[in-house]
Design goal:
With 202 residues, the protein is an alpha/beta fold. Helix content is 32%, strand content 27%.
Length: 202
């Protein structure tokens, strides 16, 4: 696998009886990229995500995540990814260390466990230089990590992605930077891009 590609998907499909939920999609996500995986409810996003995180087997096609095949090495895929809720959940008025201590307490860790895990996390994430800085003072990239795969049906969120794909009825109908897509469809917002795509399909 090309080391710059953190996710690679080729002709991936998922069929349930007579219904094709994901229809032969192909795309790649680069290391360090914020990639938007967009589409209306029912477009096939969730089904595709389930295949990519190793909890649903593809009907056909290939996909690797962090170098691991989603069909044959799903356990390693699961160990290589993390989930983050839609809203960033650390407290801006606490330092990184204080946030870790706070959440450790919520999850019932002892003081010694919290101290050990805090040191371990800060070293693993290479945050030694900023561990005592307020989270609110850090750039968004520091808060969220290296490669982000954002899945949503809110088109305004696409404006913040490096590149976006838009799914309609199980297929990827557009894939490019928000700026290029808006220029291509001669519109001012990603929501208008989506509406044009959806209308053309119907």
């Amino acid at each position: 696998m090309n080391e710059d590609k953190i996710i690679s998907v080729k002709n991936l499909s998922k069929v349930f009886g007579d219904f094709t939920a994901v229809n032969n999609i192909s795309f790649e996500v680069n290391k360090g990229e914020i990639f938007g995986f967009l589409g209306a409810n029912g477009a096939g996003k969730t089904t595709a995500m389930k295949m990519l995180i190793g909890i649903s087997k593809p009907s056909s096609g290939e996909a690797t995540v962090a170098g691991f095949d989603v069909k044959t090495n799903s356990e390693m895929v699961k160990k290589s990814i993390g989930y983050m809720s839609q809203k960033f959940s650390m407290y801006d008025d606490l330092t990184i260390k204080e946030n870790i201590t706070f959440f450790g307490g919520i999850y019932g860790l002892t003081k010694s466990q919290i101290k050990e895990k805090t040191t371990q996390l800060i070293e693993e994430l290479q945050l030694e230089e900023v561990a005592n800085k307020l989270v609110g003072s850090l750039p968004l990239g520091w808060k969220q990590g290296t490669t982000l795969f954002v899945t949503t049906h809110y088109m305004d969120e696409a404006e913040y992605c490096d590149r976006v794909s838009i799914m309609v009825e199980g297929k990827i109908e557009a894939l490019d930077t928000p700026k290029t897509l808006k220029k291509q469809f001669n519109v001012d917002s990603m929501n208008e891009v989506f509406l044009k795509l959806a209308r053309n399909i119907e």
